[in-house]
Amino acid sequence: MALTAPFAGRLSDRIGRKNTIVASGLSLAAATLACSQVDSLNALLFWRFLQGVFTPGIFAVTIAYIHDEWGAAEAGRGTASYVGGTVVGGFLGRFLSGLIAAHSDWHTVFLALGALNLASALLIWRFMPPETKKPAPPTAGFLPAVAEHFRNPLLLATFAVGFCVFFSLIATFTYINFYLAQPPFSLPTSVLGSLFFVYLTSTVVTPIAGRYIDRLGHRIVLVCGMAGGAAGALLTLVPNVIVIIIGLALVCNAVFVSQTCGNSFIGVATKTNRALAVGLYVMVYNIGGSMGAAVPGALWKGYGWSGVVTLIVAVQALTMLLAWNLWPARNR
Length: 332
Fold this sequence. Notes:
By secondary structure, the chain is mainly α. The chain has one domain (about 5-125, about 140-325): Growth Hormone, Chain: A (Up-down Bundle), CATH 1.20.1250.20. The protein is built from 14 helices and no strands. It has helices at about 5-15, 15-35, 40-55, 55-70, 75-105, 105-125, 140-150, 155-180, 190-195, 200-215, 220-235, 240-270, 275-295, 295-325. α11 (about 220-235) packs antiparallel against α12 (about 240-270). The mean pLDDT is about 90.
């Protein structure tokens, strides 16, 4: 995903936003269905890799579509609605996979998810309105356009925010499983999988945040959201499962609110080559998630969950500092 996201945005500038989204959705469905038919690890990894190749053509290009159609002044609400949809999709993917696997096997999981992907792609093709505002043609070649974006301080701040946001989410939900699987909690795998139910709280909070983004500006909403996330991370240090779940819900909401802020701020920070900017954001965002899975490992080994929480809170504080010092106070 990190490798291909910038190219997906560039492609949509050439062939159109909806065309790219539909083609990517159909390709993703084909790759997912192919996963259900493999009989070796190498074949599974190949098709899973292709799933990652095709996904940015949906995610990154939809964000660009929202910016083009709604404009910077109203993109917060549009982006919040879209992020809310990704929350539901992310939860259902995990929940349905576990449910199906409990009664069948992993091949059936990919078959069901592939069928859902195909149905979604066909619904997009049938009901998504074609873009009414054509994006401005690319103002430079691919590499010069990339260099131009990396010279934009507002975009650099936004990329850094995206990195930190996904870092904190992946770090939290990766290592909390190890923590809760140990005494005194000793929770079984089935219960640990249910932790993802906290994702659903974001379907309520994120659209509300979208309205406040358009009213108050990205900076204030992100700082408030991340402050709540830091408080949630600290709550997970309380040795009580109910309190920990509340803390996880706060972290989750902070991440998706901040993701909405970052995605929608791209429309403020860029005027040209916007889809490429979204692609670069998705690239850095996914690198942050990968680092969030790997980097806290050393702290987990040396200091346990409290060491991981210290890192998570530090990253959340850095996110707030970046947005507060480098983003404008109000939308422009």
